[in-house]
């Protein structure tokens, strides 16, 4: 596995641990389905689909990090800011499923692991981070983009920490868990910076043109123009 990527391949984590996180991921996806049904409407449903397409395309493009490694957009904070955590969980799950099935980017037996790290940990860390940060910052549109960017920076290394835990529980590689955790965290802090920049400019662009569609601007937040 390329430690600069969060897509876990087949065989990197043993079957019992993969199955455990597969069951957990199914549970969270079912919860997300129920939540999305209550939060999506005729205007926001197309945005959720477009968000999934954008993340899918953006994940195909890598940016340099350090020492010959590269990273790509995860998109959890971006999706959460635009369409909310339930729809973001579903969008990332669809992206991961398509990537595993059609492009062998992440293994099928590891799909539950990848969904848990990227669609659950990264999304819900982003959601709560955005809520907390928005309470601190001024109530304006720029603050939403800043909150999303900071959430993106936090979510990426925490998703990598999820992988490190999974590897410690059932990793099949020869590298010890502590070494893997150190490498993953160090690399993904740097990737988080790139994630934050992409998230900031994307959310800022969308919110300036269609703020009425942006979940992070309107949902459960008393904000003013």
Would you write up a description of this structure?
The chain has one domain (15-218): Arp2/3 complex 21 kDa subunit ARPC3, CATH 1.10.1760. The protein contains 8 helices and 2 strands. It has helices at residues 15-39, 44-58, 76-83, 85-103, 111-136, 141-170, 177-209, 215-218; strands spanning 62-64, 70-72. A two-stranded antiparallel ribbon has the order 1-2. A hairpin with a 5-residue loop joins β1 (62-64) and β2. α3 packs across α4, α5 (111-136) packs antiparallel against α6 and α6 (141-170) runs antiparallel to α7 (177-209). The longest helix is centred in the C-terminal third of the chain and has 33 residues, at 177-209. The protein is globular and about 50 Å long. The termini are far apart.
Key structural traits:
225 residues; mainly alpha; Arp2/3 complex 21 kDa subunit ARPC3; two-stranded antiparallel sheet; 8 helices; 2 strands; 3% strand; disordered C terminus
* Average pLDDT metric: 85
- Proportion of residues in helical segments: over 70%
The first-to-last residue Cα distance is: 46 Å
The parts where pLDDT drops under 50 for at least 5 residues are 220-225
Number of beta strands: 2
**Backbone shape:** globular
CATH classification class: Mainly Alpha
Strand and helix map with partners:
Blueprint: H1 15-39, H2 44-58, E1 62-64, E2 70-72, H3 76-83, H4 85-103, H5 111-136, H6 141-170, H7 177-209, H8 215-218
Antiparallel strand pairs: 1-2
In short:
With about 220 residues, the protein is mostly helical. It has one domain (about 15-220): Arp2/3 complex 21 kDa subunit ARPC3.
């Amino acid at each position: 596995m390329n430690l600069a990527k969060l897509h876990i391949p087949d065989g990197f984590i043993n079957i019992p641990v993969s199955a455990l996180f597969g069951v957990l991921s199914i549970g969270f996806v079912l919860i997300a389905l129920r939540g999305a049904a209550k939060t999506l409407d005729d205007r926001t449903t197309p945005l959720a689909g477009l968000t999934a397409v954008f993340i899918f395309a953006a994940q195909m493009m890598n940016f340099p990090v350090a020492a010959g490694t590269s990273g790509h957009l995860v998109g959890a904070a971006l999706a959460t800011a635009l369409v909310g955590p339930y729809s973001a969980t579903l969008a990332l799950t669809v992206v991961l499923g398509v990537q595993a099935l059609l492009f062998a980017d992440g293994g099928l037996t590891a799909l539950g692991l990848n969904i848990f790290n990227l669609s659950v940990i990264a999304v819900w860390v982003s959601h709560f981070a955005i809520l907390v940060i928005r309470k601190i910052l001024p109530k304006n549109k720029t603050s939403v983009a800043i909150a999303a960017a900071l959430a993106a920076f936090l979510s990426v290394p925490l998703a990598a920490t999820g992988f490190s835990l999974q590897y410690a529980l059932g990793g099949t590689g020869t590298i010890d868990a502590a070494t893997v955790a150190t490498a993953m965290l160090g690399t993904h802090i740097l990737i988080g910076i790139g994630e934050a920049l992409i998230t900031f400019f994307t959310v800022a662009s969308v919110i300036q043109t269609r703020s009425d569609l942006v979940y992070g601007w309107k949902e459960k937040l008393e904000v003013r123009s």
